[in-house]
Amino acid sequence: MVLYHGGKDVVEFPEIRKALYHKDFYFGFYCTKLPEQAKRWATRYGTSGVLNCYEYTPDNKLKYLVFDEMTEEWLDFIVHCRSGKSHTYDIVEGPMADDTIYNYIQNYIDGKISRAAFWELAKFSHPTHQISFHTISALDTLKYVGSEEVYGNKK
Fold first, then answer.
1. Is residue 56 domain-resident?
2. Which domain holds residue 90?
3. Integer Cα distance of 91 and 133 in angstroms
4. Which helix (DSSP H) or strand (DSSP E) does residue 103 occupy?
5. Which residues make Cβ contacts (< 8 Å) with residue 18, sequence separation at least 6?
6. How many domains in the chain?
7. Are 9 and 41 in contact, with CB atoms under 8 Å apart?
8. Cα distance between residue 16 and residue 137, in whole Å
9. Assigned domain for 155 exists
10. For residue 8, what is the DSSP state?
11. In a domain? residue 25
């Protein structure tokens, strides 16, 4: 399977970096099977970016968590991770909390909306996908195959 990572730079050797903010599935190297989504990641600041491509080969020795869709378990896991709590999975895959969903999740965490209100708002979101790699062994499942410069619509 081909996976894509959008960013500012060519990433021939993926790394797990601690960042200022916790992400959906905690700190990790994030990819997607949707090239258009990776292009949006790469150009989100209104400048050109890089679409990196990897061949992904799953390894059954690793510990996986897969969410096929947004579920109660998915929401609880994202709230857990975004609260700064780690997990023990090598690879986590599932829907992405895009900017809109992120705001709904933050409002839910902050107590501004109820769980029921979150689900009512979230049902109108478009399909997304992310797969995050959280250990060196997980990163070993990726083989860099190339990259290309991409351009956003913002000026």
1. yes
2. 2-150
3. 5
4. helix 99-109
5. 27
6. 1
7. no
8. 11
9. no
10. S
11. yes
